[in-house]
Amino acid sequence: MNTFSSEKQRYAELAVKVGLNLQEGQQLIIQAPLETVDLVRFVTDEAYKAGASDVTVFYQDNESVLSRLRYAKDASLVNQWLPAGIAQAFSEGAARLVILGDSPNIPDALSSARQAYSAANMAVLTELGTLLKKTASNWSLLAYATPQWASSVFPDLEIDVAVDRLWREIFASVRLDKRDAVAEWDSHNQELFARASFMNERNFDALIFSGPGTELSVGLAEGHIWKGGAKQTLTGIRCNSNLPTEEIFTTPHSHKVNGFVRATKPMVYQGKIISGIQVRFEDGVAVDVSADENQSLLEELLTADASACRLGEVALVPHSSPISKSGILFKNTLFDENASCHLAFGGSYNHCMKPGTESDHLQRGANRSIIHQDWMIGSGAMDVYGVKDDVKYLIMKNGEWV
Amino acid sequence: MNTFSSEKQRYAELAVKVGLNLQEGQQLIIQAPLETVDLVRFVTDEAYKAGASDVTVFYQDNESVLSRLRYAKDASLVNQWLPAGIAQAFSEGAARLVILGDSPNIPDALSSARQAYSAANMAVLTELGTLLKKTASNWSLLAYATPQWASSVFPDLEIDVAVDRLWREIFASVRLDKRDAVAEWDSHNQELFARASFMNERNFDALIFSGPGTELSVGLAEGHIWKGGAKQTLTGIRCNSNLPTEEIFTTPHSHKVNGFVRATKPMVYQGKIISGIQVRFEDGVAVDVSADENQSLLEELLTADASACRLGEVALVPHSSPISKSGILFKNTLFDENASCHLAFGGSYNHCMKPGTESDHLQRGANRSIIHQDWMIGSGAMDVYGVKDDVKYLIMKNGEWV
Fold this sequence. Notes:
The structure is a homodimer. With about 400 residues, the first copy, chain A, is α+β, with helices and mostly antiparallel strands.
């Protein structure tokens, strides 16, 4: 529990000052797995130091989920009043920090209870999510090096060594290896903002990705907006919901993607590895799909609904990003999406589109799907061009901004 | 964590079946210190097995309280929406289990923050308590042998030995040393109910306690009601809010207590021991008070308000009760009040009076005070008489029911 205390204290400070940008007088609600209590205590200290009026922690226990699935007469009868109360608190301006932990290891025998529970839970979370979008309070995610995660990232290391290693990688990825990480994030956010602004000014019609095994034209949605780094809530608070973040990202045109592309890292889906992915697109649709491993799982993913086979996000990340340099597959989107230029199958983000009605958005190229699954295509051998009025401009050379 | 697992599982089962008498389809809200997670998991299992629709656990962390007192700009800004949500859940029929833990060790330097926090917290809890009384959902308290508590009960034992010993005493006190503890509680509840019914039928005017150093007449309030064992909620569920419980208890007359009495065990107040207590009463008031240790603390207690020096409860417990036989001072009222006949300074219970208006209750002998402090007066050398129309009837001889 006491390993890396000073680093965890600085990590907590970063979460409060940069991740949440917690304001004096704000309430903070923390959702955290039981095993992350040491980090929770540091965050609580930092939150009160930053002027939090109240810090409420909801500890999650995977054993409690398993108990429900094993013994409940109806696993779908989930608590409704607590999420409603939390939503109420957000609408009154509370900030929210989620510390990520392991998923429960659910035996196959409990899969029908799991499905009932997941569906009910998802309905509650969707309602909460809708409220969150409306209230748009500042929030942030924070990773924690649990033994289960560490051993999946470093299967060849002993468990304690793996956990230590993963902590070091997490700290480096959020720039805690620098003396003044808060100042680093200020300039990092400015840089991401400048990149996104540049891309918004150019307002390219399409991007072209060109590299080994890849020659892909990704049309951009009409009225697409590039985002990156700190975002502003409706209440005017700038927060970094993702620590780390290295990407700028926008909305591809759901019907204007053509060519072929080879993934440069495995996709992690439902805890499984899908490696060696190659895809050919025609008019936005992934028409030919192959993978060296778990191809059927990929096919299942892309048929989750009618638009799961189209793109909902395109993101640019320099090959020199800290996470890319680590060379590690974290098997966690919060990290892996910051290692490389990437695409996502599935739904697009409304905040990456200029305002409009739903049908207007769809007509301009937004995509709607129940899935949103990132996969990495960038590398040190990738060139990226912006296309405007049929003229190509080189914007990344060998994986770096030009 | 894994010591006494099978006993803790049985303890959890007892809490669900006897303490709460949890009904099929009921929600359960558990409030528990972080360090009691092993017991919480057993209770969760047993609750779902008993048909709970949902089990929600709120883990408490003393470190979080200390963090607030150390760093918050205003320690009194406590969360309001969560207690309101919990109250809402109770009013909709949720059951409530509180697992008891240690109080935080608050340095003197933080005492002004502590006072601000305590006052604000008390206001929220009082509001919740009022709602709870109205909704009267089934609830129960459950003790947990924390190291801090164990070492205060057994200061001469090594910490692990002390914890083991305290667990054994807890299990014995709730009859888990018997093969079928649930059945034992059925007959125990019936016995307590029969004793209380007997005393209610007799409707004595007063009790006389007679033993070494004690010759005390305790007048009973007009319309007093004896209670004991399982109680019925407004929704008709019989629950044992206190595990263990050995007492039957009622309302003394606040103005009709006369004579002298010597306490047979120390009083524990604010974590301090007040030993060798002797009191002389005149017309309900403790007029002469002495103690071998911490007498000034006792005097402070009895001047907390104008009626703190009068009695609010009188309880009968046979000297042969399991807790009495253990000979241990648990320094915890949940246990110690079940070791011996006892009195309480301070406020009386409305449910121990026949219905009436507030002024009617006061006129009939009920007492109102901000304190309610139990102290033990029974022993194996104590005789107790009931007095009706100036006739004395022996009801306990040498500390046992006759």
